[in-house]
Give the backbone structure.
Amino acid sequence: MTLNTKTLLLLAGWILAGLASVALIAQHMKWSEQQARWQTELGQQQQRVVELELIIAELHTDIDESGPTISETATKTGSAISNVFDRVRSSFSRGGVPSDE
């Protein structure tokens, strides 16, 4: 069986198309995994924010008893929340997942 040039080019084209498809599928899988990691990290960051909000709420209920000390603690906690959001924002702008420090 003799293959002519046209048949060989067609076969090579199909092989290249198959390789390109495999590369696209692999890249899609990487992107999906990265997105899943981002979603997990975002969920963890949201959980941390909720925990901090609960701390703030508890501090505000005790404010009458402790006065300025509670206010200072609430300010520090608010700063911690701001730092969490800054980390999440900066990590997404860099395209990475924030790491625990």
Q: What stands out?
A: The CA atoms of residues 41 and 97 lie 7 Å apart. The chain has a mean pLDDT of 81. The first helix runs from residue 5 to 61. The radius of gyration is 27 Å.
